[in-house]
Amino acid sequence: MESPFKSIDSLKLSMKHIKIWYTAGMGFFTDAYDLFVIGIIINMIINAYKYAGITIPGFTEYLVGKDAVFWTGLLASSALWSAIVGQLVFGAIGDLMGRKKVYGIEASILSLGALLSAFSPNLIWLIIFRTIMGVGIGGDYPISSTIMSEYANVKDRGKLVSLVFANQGLGSIAAVVAGILASLMLPPWIAWRVIAGLGAIPALTVIYLRRKVPETPRYSLLIKGDIDNAVSAARFLGTKLDMTKPVKSAKMGIKEFLSNYWALLVGTTIPWFILDIAFYGTGIYSGPIVTSIFGSPFVSTSLTLSQFEADMARYTFLAGIPYLVGFPGYFTAVALADKMGRKLMQVQGFTMMAIIYFIVSLVITQVGKSIILLTAPSLGLGIYVLSFFFINFGPNTTTFVIPAEVYPTRYRTTGHGISAAAGKLGAAITTYLFPTLTLTIGYKGILEMLAIVSIIGAVITYLFVKEPKGLPLEEVSGEKIITVDVTQKS
């Protein structure tokens, strides 16, 4: 059967695609900023007390007290736990009610949570507000990825969906820059609030645009049977649908979906779970990891305020080195997604991660909380941060792209939401447990664990993931399309 979306699939890349990319991508800029800035905030509060004797009432007593490990892990992971809820709920709603129905709501939630975080009276409220923010962050994953994939042309679909996700790289760099500038210009009790509040701005700029994006032509036609809206959405892209034979997606219950797509669910959930164990654990706690290799930039435990501000800026820069090295990986993935293919890129990324983690684990020993390298610190750090390049030029990008392509229209946001929730579960677990793991098995043991799970990720990808490169969504997802009577009502 000739696809009614052939004209959309064969379109050349246009400014309409770029507009949708910006609208979808700004959410991920904010997502990354808000998720990774919490590491800077935690370190700022702890280090202010440790090196300058500065107490921030309502916060310091939690993060340096006898239960500091518990509160640090809970604060760092709070937005991740609630993101799981957002991914599952918004993923289900996106298929039941449509992508457009909820688009913009998730951005409003995460903006509200970020703004309220800046005015938290104590750590408990900061955890609550970041939990609210996390719901919005989670909701952004299935909706933005699916809208981009369903509007994209076949030739550039991998590139466009990868570009949406590449905004995570921009957001993480923005978090580092904001942390450095705030550390230099403001006292810590104000700086952390400014850093937190800035996270609300990017998402606020796209809420209106998201509410104006038309429902995707695929969802309109195949699920809702709304020919007029499908035609209008195609016109938004500057093309027409082939409506000589109106079609719909065959109905499929949840049991049938699970029966037909269980193997794919294994292929899109487990690798994402494994990836986020590595990415978030080493990312959010990059400051302690890097400084344990290079040594602390804090020159004394009795610093003046100005000395602390300067040293905290250097600490934040060191913590940001993995993000700076990893940043080109996002755009390497963008450039090669439609040439190299998503599956191969994911396998090579996991493989390189395993090799790097294994090598670094061989050249370190740990004494207390400090790492002793059996090689030059700059070489050891260089090898370690290279893992961030291959994470981004690999599974960090592809685990986001693949679920937006391989599931049928009727369950596309649900499938993506389940996959993303598995990833955030891995992120939340490792972020919560990381402070404890550093005290029990140490950094060497953590790296050995990450090497093993990375190998598992590569194997699962090879066995259970299908390659969507160059195929229309209906073909790669195995969607059953049926012809309908034009007079039939949905």
Describe the structure.
The protein is mainly α and 490 residues long. The chain has one domain (6-483): Growth Hormone, Chain: A, CATH 1.20.1250. It is built from 23 helices and 4 strands. The chain has helices at 6-9, 15-52, 60-63, 68-96, 99-102, 105-117, 123-151, 157-185, 188-198, 201-204, 207-212, 217-223, 227-237, 254-284, 286-294, 305-340, 342-362, 377-392, 395-401, 403-406, 412-440, 442-464, 473-476; strands spanning 247-249, 364-367, 370-373, 481-483. β2 (364-367) and β3 form a beta hairpin. α16 (305-340) packs across α17.
Distinctive features:
490 residues, two-stranded antiparallel ribbon
Identify the overall geometry: globular
Q: What does the largest sheet look like?
A: 2 strands, antiparallel
Number of domains: 1
Percent helix range: over 70%
Task: Briefly say what this structure is.
The chain is mostly helical and 490 residues long. The chain contains 23 helices and four strands.
SSE inventory with pairings:
Blueprint: H1 6-9, H2 15-52, H3 60-63, H4 68-96, H5 99-102, H6 105-117, H7 123-151, H8 157-185, H9 188-198, H10 201-204, H11 207-212, H12 217-223, H13 227-237, E1 247-249, H14 254-284, H15 286-294, H16 305-340, H17 342-362, E2 364-367, E3 370-373, H18 377-392, H19 395-401, H20 403-406, H21 412-440, H22 442-464, H23 473-476, E4 481-483
